[in-house]
Amino acid sequence: MGPYLRELWTRRQFAYALARANLRAQHFNTALGQLWLVLNPVLLGLVYFILVYIIGRGNRGMDFLAHLMLGLFAFRLVSTSFAQGASSVVGGGRLILNTAFPRSLLPLSSMLTCIGRFLPTLLVYAVLHGLAGLPVGWQLLWAVPVLLLLTIFATGAAMLAATAQVYFRDFSNFLPYFTRIWLYLTPVLYYADEVPEKLKSLAVINPVFSLIATLSDVVNQGQSPRASYMLWGVGWATVTLLVGSLLFISREREFAVRI
Question: The pTM is what?
């Protein structure tokens, strides 16, 4: 692992360049492309808010809209990294066949692309946070480690998805349905405290439940994070990164044959 990690670090500029190329391919370098990058999740969030508002008979306000938007932005960071990671190795077939480099640079570059798409949404949320009159205090600092844990988890998930896609080509077709169900099981369209007692196990078995619930607590509610949620978040992020990276590295020599 030592030589592999050193080679990975030596070629880090390759991952940055590939991520920038992917962003340019998605029209990130144009004004309209950047506008749509933000408008797409915002419009999706407004649709969800209207549905929840109607179902809740009008008892949701701006504070819930801020919770929904923040949760949706954070969840999309994970779900898009899963989807982009799944296509990273299969889509980079020519590079794999013609160039010698650590293959994990491919899912890592896809993760950098997802981060580049996520960062502009934070500016949108900051405006919404102010309009909703939500608290601004030292608890906001907890958002940094929570988002870091989400990024670590997403990186491991991207490597798992990249490996699975090589061996099961229908995996990408299954992903949209999986991520939609995953969204409904995550406290984005509702608060974590609204989960019925018999479904509290979701906080344990859903890898991002505790982290997104904590993000809402510290940012929207101005509360300190719950110790149990933070412990579960650290555990899921660490295990997913270790399992995903080790599985990917152990199988990457077969990728040239499989693709």
Answer: 0.88
Residues in the chain: 259
Distance of CA 55 to the CA centre of its chain: 27
- CA-wise closest residue to 134 among 215, 69, 49, 66: 66
Cα 244 to chain centroid distance, Å, stands at: 15
Query: 10 Å Cβ neighbour count for 48?
Result: 18
DSSP-derived 3-state class of residue 46: helix
* Contact between residue 149 and residue 233 where contact means Cβ atoms under 8 Å apart: yes
Q: Which of 117, 145, 152, 158 is nearest to 215 (CA)?
A: 145
Q: Are 107 and 162 in contact (CB under 8 A)?
A: yes
Structure-token pair, residue 16: 């940055």
Query: At 198, is the pLDDT very low, low, confident or very high (cuts 50, 70, 90)?
Result: confident
Spatial distance between the Cα atoms of 63 and 223, rounded to a whole number of angstroms: 14
Q: Tens digit of pLDDT for each residue in 180-189?
A: 899 989 999 8
